[in-house]
Fold:
Amino acid sequence: MSKTKVHRLGDLQLKIMKVLWERGDGTVADVHLALGGGRDLAYTTIATMLRKMEARGLVRHRVDGRSFVYRPAVGSDAVTRGMSDHLLDRLFEGSLADLVTHLLTTREVSREELSRLEQLIAERKKSA
Amino acid sequence: MSKTKVHRLGDLQLKIMKVLWERGDGTVADVHLALGGGRDLAYTTIATMLRKMEARGLVRHRVDGRSFVYRPAVGSDAVTRGMSDHLLDRLFEGSLADLVTHLLTTREVSREELSRLEQLIAERKKSA
DNA sequence: CTTTATCTACTACCTGGGTAGTATTACCGC
DNA sequence: GCGGTAATACTACCCAGGTAGTAGATAAAG
Structure:
């Protein structure tokens, strides 16, 4: 079951995960660089964060020379899903339609996006 | 601009807000009762939370006898929107279609819900 | 071999959510 | 008036995210 509580990732943690998902793996330096390379965040901040994230089971590391190479321990799908579901449940009692309704009425949605959605739903309806 | 940072509400805070949105206002006792009345949460927990929330600008209170009557200081729409947008931006770079795609492919969606969505989009397309 | 750059480890601090006990105040019934 | 009750205020924790400095180890450069 792996109740990893995969929702509730902070902004920074998510950014880090995204880097790792994209690259497959990466050292602290890699991640640091990918996130703007020091202008915003200290190197040690990334290092600390990665260590904390490993303790929480979000990433794993192997040793390469004197560097740690981190790689994701949870898939992007699981996280995305966990967070989406969490929001959906908290705000819309699980109703996808309610969420979409809300987004459609409070957001600017381009005609292209609407068409894309239409197609998605048609597709889904067919295969269900 | 009112940078109230209306996203990032904790679970309990959201529950409390929901009670207040529904009732219009309420005392600590009202909220406490609405949330199960002590089986889960201590009375003082709600009181503390409401005080903290007032400090953050989420609710306001007026005095009625010796009781505080709290009422929402932010609308449910603003919060819902703030949180949805936050997630949308963090996970899907703002693409509504991507979010829906994800939800459609990872969730069970009933045929009824699909039809509802279809209708929503058609409606929206017309009025845009 | 010594200096320097590069790693990780450790520690510390701040913020905010969550939880609740204890203290104090004030009203209400007798 | 007095005791109980119900209300807020205060204080204190714990946890997790975020941020970063400092220390210690080690490899690379000279």
Observations:
- The first strand of chain B starts at residue 59 and ends at 64.
- The radius of gyration of chain B is 18 Å.
- Chain B has a mean pLDDT of 91.
- Chain B touches chain A through 37 residues (CB under 8 Å).
